[in-house]
Amino acid sequence: MTGNGKGFISYAVLNSEGADITAETDAHGNNVAFRCFKCGHSVLLSAFNGQLGNNPEKVRPCKGGCGTEYFLEKMAEDKKLYIRTRKETQSASEQTRADYRYTLEIATRWSDFDMMMHLNNVQYYRYFETVVLSYLARIGSDLLRDPVIPFAVESNCKFLRPIAPAPFIDAALRIARIGNSSVQYEIGLFEKEQETPSALGRFVHVYIVRETEKNTAIPERVREGLKKIASGH
């Protein structure tokens, strides 16, 4: 990648298949220019919040006539930048239980629900972490003793419909991306007997050395376990 200024100048740029296309792009600050994958027309994407191309909800269409819609996905911990198309992302309405590789039944508590008789917003994030940590334990991680451990660095939730009081809820998990030191999880929260999610979550871990708290590579044993529930696996 060429260019001047800060921002993405030190990042490797990859397409959705993970192929390095850095040499075919041009970066200036937080903007990246490249040729449309379909028609070859010039496309400019920005990582600034609110700008077109910043995320799947604010895509930038190619103006060369093909209409392909692009956005950036940044993996800051690994210095990687993915150029993605909207077609690669699955809309919330299209997702079902079958799209996830691991499901955990979580017992709810009366205090999880608010005065409106809906699941309290805070609890969604607790369920996200619960299913992630459950899977890590399943593949042999010991967060109390392992020398290399994960730290949560990002989480967000897309609320699709309220979750009514019930004894149990299903949290479904898959891996969206595995980097050198980071992993991105995707979670769907499902009410019993429902095939589509009531909420979608995104959760990111970065692996660190316990004693130094410095970033390090994901242990190979953990990496192999994560691959088993990766999207498209």
Please tell me the overall pLDDT: 86
Q: What is the approximate shape?
A: globular
Order of strands, main sheet, comes to 8-10-11-12-9
**Helical residue percent?**
10-25%
The description of the largest β-sheet is:
5 strands, antiparallel
Distance from N terminus to C terminus (CA atoms, Å) equals 30 Å
Please tell me how large the radius of gyration is: 19 Å
Q: Note the run of SSEs as H and E.
A: EEEEEEEEHEEEEH
Low-pLDDT stretches are 1-5
Which secondary-structure class do the elements indicate?
mainly beta
By DSSP, the count of extended strands is 12
Give a structural overview.
The chain is built from 2 helices and 12 strands, in the order ββββββββαββββα. The protein has helices at 121-138, 220-227; strands at residues 12-14, 26-28, 31-35, 42-46, 60-61, 69-75, 80-85, 102-107, 148-159, 168-178, 182-190, 199-209. It is globular. The protein has 233 residues and is mostly beta strands.
Task: From the structure above, extract its key features.
233 residues; mainly beta; 11% helix; 2 helices; disordered N terminus; five-stranded antiparallel beta sheet; four-stranded mixed beta sheet; single chain
Short recap of the structure:
By secondary structure, this protein is mainly β. Helices cover 11% and strands 34% of the residues. The chain has helices at 121-138, 220-227, and strands spanning 12-14, 26-28, 31-35, 42-46, 60-61, 69-75, 80-85, 102-107, 148-159, 168-178, 182-190, 199-209.
